[in-house]
């Protein structure tokens, strides 16, 4: 007999009993007198430093604290560790499992979720895009993120005119220009077709000239065409679908679904993949060509923002605030020499 603690499965009260095994049965004597068939008793998987736990068919259980008594009890009941437990005793098996886990995470993150997000976005009706975008704009306004633009009426009118010039009839878009400190120098496209451009984005393009000439107009048109591409290709909806899937996957593992409810906040910090940026670039190239606008100024703008600090040190460019502002644009619109080169190639095609 060995000392054990009995729990009836209906209350948290612990009963001290003497436990014995013999004649195909487990006998409990003491505060509780009971007997269970060994064949109906299940032994929990043991862990180092924890009690041996027996589960009985009526929902009750017993815990045996003494390690040696626990080992003898498991042997008497014919307990055999599962294959998984036996494999964990081998270093090679643990390393193989780790490699497979990392591979599974990478495949899910870089292929599974994006592929599923694309299919989900394609299956959603346009009304979902409108609802998502409108909710995001309302939330940004309610939080005070979107403040009234400080640009001159002349600049605002010119940028809006550029929007009307490049926006295709089959893509419902609208341009919102605001003083948005949280965005820095940036432009983002929401699923409903709302394109939010910050004052700093316009100032970044205009630079030291102080006027919107042909070059500046082409650069702003290029930025707008790029964002229209995100709307037309439903990139925002795809990102949100992917964020939902990632949040749901994380919640299933960690037990916290709060990330799924935070989707409106995701809209305010959309960051597209290089694939999506390339797709939006190609769309912008076609849209600019259709409107007779060269892609060279947009390539110059990308390179100016990417290499601005070096140019500034040589005394060839604008004050430092421009490059601090440009960092926010580059953080959500990853730049590269390849993208600028593609725009230059497009100008000569």
From TrEMBL:
Quote the cofactor binding remark.
Binds 1 zinc ion per subunit.
Q: Which residues form the Peptidase M48 domain?
A: 169-346
Which co-factor is required?
Zn(2+)
Q: What are the protein's UniProt keywords?
A: Hydrolase, Membrane, Metal-binding, Metalloprotease, Protease, Transmembrane, Transmembrane helix, Zinc
The record's annotation in Gene3D superfamilies points to:
Metalloproteases ('zincins'), catalytic domain
- Domain DUF7092: from-to ranges: 1-75
Organism superkingdom: Bacteria
Name listed for the protein in its UniProt record: M48 family metallopeptidase
Q: Which family does it belong to?
A: Belongs to the peptidase M48 family.
Which InterPro entries does the annotation name?
DUF7092 (IPR055518), Mito/Outer_Membr_Metalloprot (IPR051156), Peptidase_M48 (IPR001915)
Q: Which CDD domains match?
A: M48C_Oma1_like
Transmembrane feature ranges: 92-113
Q: Which Pfam families match?
A: DUF7092, Peptidase_M48
């Amino acid at each position: 007999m060995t000392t054990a603690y009995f729990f009836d499965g209906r209350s948290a009260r612990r009963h001290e009993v003497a436990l014995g095994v013999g004649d195909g049965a487990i006998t409990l004597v003491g505060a509780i007198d009971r007997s269970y068939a060994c064949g109906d008793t299940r032994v929990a998987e043991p862990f180092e430093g924890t009690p041996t736990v027996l589960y009985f068919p009526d929902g009750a259980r017993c815990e045996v604290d003494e390690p040696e008594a626990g080992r003898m009890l498991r042997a008497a009941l014919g307990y055999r560790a599962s294959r998984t437990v036996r494999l964990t005793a081998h270093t090679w098996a643990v390393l193989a499992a780790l490699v497979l886990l990392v591979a599974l995470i990478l495949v899910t993150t870089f292929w599974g979720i994006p592929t599923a997000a694309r299919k989900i976005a394609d299956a959603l009706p346009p009304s979902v895009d409108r609802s998502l975008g409108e909710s995001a704009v309302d939330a940004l306004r309610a939080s005070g993120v979107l403040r009234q633009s400080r640009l001159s009426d002349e600049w605002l009118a010119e940028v809006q005119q550029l929007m009307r010039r490049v926006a295709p009839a089959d893509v419902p878009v609208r341009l919102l220009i605001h003083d948005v400190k949280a965005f820095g120098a940036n432009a983002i496209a929401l699923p409903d077709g709302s394109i939010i451009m910050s004052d700093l984005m316009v100032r970044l393009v205009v630079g030291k000239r102080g006027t919107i000439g042909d070059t500046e107009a082409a650069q702003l048109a290029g930025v707008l065409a790029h964002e229209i591409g995100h709307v037309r290709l439903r990139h925002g909806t795809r990102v949100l679908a992917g964020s939902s899937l990632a949040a749901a996957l994380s919640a299933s593992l960690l037990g916290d679904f709060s990330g799924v409810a935070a989707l409106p906040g995701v809209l305010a910090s959309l960051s597209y993949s290089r694939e999506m940026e390339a797709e939006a670039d190609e769309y912008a190239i076609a849209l600019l060509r259709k409107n007779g606008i060269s892609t060279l100024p947009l390539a110059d703008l990308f390179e100016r923002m990417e290499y601005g600090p070096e140019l500034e040190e040589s005394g060839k460019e604008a004050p430092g605030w421009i490059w601090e502002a440009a960092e926010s644009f580059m953080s959500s619109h990853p730049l590269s020499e390849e993208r600028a080169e593609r725009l230059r190639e497009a100008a000569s095609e």
